[in-house]
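Running co-folding for zinc ion.
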Amino acid sequence: MLRTVRVALPIPVVKEYTYELPGALEASVGIGSLVLVPVRARVYTAIVTELDAQVRPEVNLRRVRAVVSDEPVVNAELLELTRWIARYYLCAWGEALQAALPAGMQTKEKVVLYLDSESPAAWENISPRLYAYMAKHLKATPSRLKRAGLRISDEEFTKAEKQGALQRKVELEGPKVRAKMDRFISLAPAFRTVTALRDLLPQLHGTKQKAVIQELIRSVESGDVEPLLADVRQNCGAGLQTVKTIEQRGIISIVEKRDFRVPEWMRPADISASKAPAFHKSQAKAVEVLHEAIETQEYRTYVLHGVTGSGKTEVYLAALEKTFALKQTAIVLVPEIALTPQTVQRFRSRFGDTVAVLHSRMAQGERYDVWEQIRADRYRVVIGPRSAILAPIQNLGLIIVDEEHDGSYKQMDPAPRYHARDVAVVRARMRQAVCILGSATPSLESLANVGQGKYTLLTMPDRVPTQGRSAAALPSIKIIDLCEERDKNNLHGALSTPLIQAIGSRLERKEQVILLQNRRGFAPIFECQNCGFVPQCIACSVSMTYHQVKQQLKCHYCGFVRNPPVSCPNCGASAFAPLGSGTQRVFQDLSELFRGARILRMDRDSTQTKNAHHEILNAFADYQADILIGTQMVAKGLDFGRVTLVGVINCDVGLRLPDFRSEERTFQLLMQVAGRAGRADLPGAVLLQTRRPKHPVFSSLKKHDFDGYAQQLMKEREALGYPPFGRIMGVQVRGAPKRRVERLAEKWRELLLEQLPSTVSVLGPEQPYIERVEHQYRYFLMIKAPKTYRNLQEDVRMVIKMAPSSMPNLHASINVDALEQV
Ligand code: ADP
Ligand code: ZN
């Protein structure tokens, strides 16, 4: 009988392909195996999703080329989950599966150029430098040539091929990550003593062999009867052959063992035990409810709304404890930039080395090994950013999403463009597990789900009580009006006198300061430097963006265009200018104002290297610095008792982004960063600099009134049909030349309008602020649909099938539940 397999390919094709499974491979292929299959002229790594799929007899099947891993790389649970992701986020199943595998497991094809002939005729009119390189190396990949500084055009390659100078071959490149095997010298039982080894010495001839035995004697003396082969060789300078000769005499054997690469901070050494504190009232209540839910082992999602410093992490730890007691496992999601050693340490100090961490800053090999050990049941809990929701942990009983409102849970590019919080809820439901969505500022989406009874709300309205006080007070929040300070001549660069004075007093008292310079998004928003006014679109209530080329203001939602006002409609001044000043400048201002102060800067530039982020935070935690200034990286999850002042250089940047979520995000960010102040015994203060002190965001912030503000935002969203009252799907078309991209975008619009009911609006096509990236033009469409419209995915899928998709240099991609326009 003909054996077949159906596979999911990691390319944007919606259907799965069927292949013949050659008899020789049968034994090693099962559902979830990784195999190599041909598609047209290429070879891909694919995952087997079905065995013995039905095929019509007349179909001529191609064959599976090879098996990449003989053990299944995904289990049934992840197959089901990734299939849900593919259906909901409108991508290929293979693309979703790919996201569930650690990077580097795929086998890729690469082009290799070989020197074919050295005859002068073959090399006529071809770069002599290319010839020199190829004559020396005989073969090369195009990227290697590029790195060698040989910039050769495609035409020249083609010519070289035609003239017979070079030959181009497509070859397979093995997986980038592999199990790391170490070789050890294992002493035979009879030779595990120093005496037995010494007795050998006179019988050996070569001095090299003697040197090896001497080295082994030293090793046994220090208690190691199985030293690393490489160490022994290095210490005595012996070649592999010498060691092998000794092996042949039966004295030793060379054994291979897997070395699991584990990052430094996941090793057991630095675990210090901690115990659960006595819970305060609302904490105890939350823990009680969660314990009960976990015990029932039924699906349920909870929104844990606790103010900053209310002790949410302790609630998570208690929930984890219960889960482990029931012999179940857990996943904890943390926003990428909040995944600091401090965060990890809090979990490790309670649960030791049963805590696995997956992190993008880990080396590829480390991630691969940790991933494999998670699959092998080595850990009880996995902590990581969004991709950890696809971790292959078995027997899952609890999923925690910390800072659930955080935008980094949504993947933008490439597909699958999933939202890890929503996938967490789905995975919990599939597993009959409990899901906790924690935040000091829950997303409107989650609050709406609470309102509809889908999620259950747990609140912790007070901070943890500290010595002498019933509850650490929330920090006092003060607004600084930048316009007023400017009029009083109180501005020093980006810093106002009140902020400078506040910083000064903290430095005197040996307390610490965090400054936030929010530079999120570089939209060319023009604001009045006098009063902070930014022109808004009347229809969409978003800021208009400035298009330099046409010198126009444009709404990116509806396309409304107008000329920029010469004088400000609000105050009459003519002082429009772009927003923001960078962290570097503020750093400089500070160094001049506070000579001798120790200042750390944390932004994308200062955290380029692998551990920079960790080092900066560790230094700040150890009080090696007085001031930490940074982008939103400094806002999340930091718990430093000495920080008593938080300053925000300019709150307006986030408020003016051309996005209907900009206010919600700004509120969340400011509340988050404010929460860094006064977390322990020392009271905290927050100073917010703005040109628009009257903005409603500030009055709510001052009162720490999240609920009131959220309600207000809800009303606005409802009126305009934005999420959570409507659904948003983005379509991006990119490629070149511009005219064709534009035409395809128009085609999409037509098809969408044709296929979707009239309750759905299609906005765009619009161009982003940056018209062209890497020679590609981009156009966006936004589909805005009522929540009640259930067939959105299926109908858009129809359009995907109809829209011309496989044109050279043109790509369309869909972003379901897009968080932002790009
Ligand atoms: P959140 O995550 O809500 O901002 P954390 O869990 O970080 O709050 O708690 C803030 C601080 O209070 C931490 O240092 C934590 O160890 C401590 N803490 C939490 N709960 C208690 C408690 N019940 N008693 C004493 N200290 C607590
Ligand atoms: Zn508009």
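Result summary
The radius of gyration is 31 Å.
The pocket of adenosine-5'-diphosphate (ligand 1) is lined by residues 277-280, 283, 306, 308-314, 464, 639, 679 (CB under 6 Å).
Job closed.
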